[in-house]
Amino acid sequence: MNSESMRSYRLEPGRGLDGLTLQRRTVLSPERGQVLVRIHANALGYRDLLVLANNYPLPIAPGVVPGCEGVGEVVAVGADVTRFAIGDRVAATVFPRWVDGPFRLDAAAQLGTMVDGVLTEYAVLDEQGLVRIPDYLSYQEAAALPLAAVTAWHALTAGAPLRPGQTVLTLGSGAVSLFTVQLAVAAGARVIATTSSEAKAERLRKLGVDEVVDYRRTPDWYTVVREATGGAGADRVIDSAGPLWKSIRAAALGAEIAVIGYWLSGDAGAEPIDPELLFNTGAVLRPIATGSRAHFEALTQVLTYHRLSPVIDRVFTFAQVPDALNYIAAGGGFGKVIISHD
Asked: What stretch of H or E contains 72?
């Protein structure tokens, strides 16, 4: 394959969209334990804007290929590859070295930040950092899974098992929250969601949300959560928007609170956490960093069983990546933004 060329985005961190360029590069051949994937679709989100701005918790390598969400077809395999064959439909894991178990620093190399990502037409990837995508999903649909869906699954399955009839609270209507809604509803949970408009509230109800709270009209939305649960509070809180102290006030005794993307919300740390409040709630706080390959593989089984389809907002072409990022920056979307190569 090394005689062929491809288009590949490159990033100079800290310059925003001015640091994003589309270049032509040689397609590399996979080495031992690697596969060459022709990328068919990517997904983008607010995380990508933070990477462009160099305002992200992980270091950004100059000249890195951005993008951590990509799916495609295996078109070549290196020596000793056993997990995949040519023609397999695969997704890259966001942390390619995190196979299973708890997150460790030696698995912190993330696609599109510390190592080359998948905003490219062809990517050479380690076979250990790939999973098969469900047959019933298109490439565009499957591209929505690696970051938001895996994060939602990890958040719902960390700690005590989620039981039917329990109450799940999710904040906002971002991609993680939408996947949380779909997975929690499939598990038989009662779901409460916060959002910012009646239009989004109606779409959340169509996904199966039982109670929607407009956090702009009701800043103290945790009081509504407690009222809706007879004073008990939510058994599971998926906090991807903050502020955390409000999530704690909405939580039931002994609840599980998954803390996601704390840096995304400007008011996430606006008020210190009262130790007495946390102690009296007895809640367990769990920081969630996407998930492992094992999380992703378990997720695909659940999605396949329930035939769940991701919520897609808009689809852009590969050449329109800057337009897609500008669209995300403008806000107001509902669902994942997809980049199609086909």
From this structure: strand 70-77
pTM, to two decimals: 0.94
**What span, in angstroms and rounded, lies between the C-alpha atoms of 146 and 111?**
11
Residue-wise burial string across 290-319, b where 16 or more C-beta atoms lie within 10 A, e elsewhere: bbbbebbbbbbebbeeeebebbbbeebebe
E strand residue ranges, 241-317: 251-259, 284-287, 312-317
Report how far residue 186's alpha carbon sits from residue 173's, in angstroms, rounded to the nearest whole number: 18
Q: Do the Cβ atoms of 181 and 207 come closer than 8 Å?
A: yes
Give the tens place of pLDDT for each residue, 36-60. 999 999 999 999 999 999 999 899 9
3-state secondary structure of 219: coil
* Among 258, 328, 18, 303, CA closest to 136: 303
Please give the order of strands across the beta sheet that includes 167-170. Answer: 211-214, 190-195, 167-170, 234-239, 251-259, 284-287
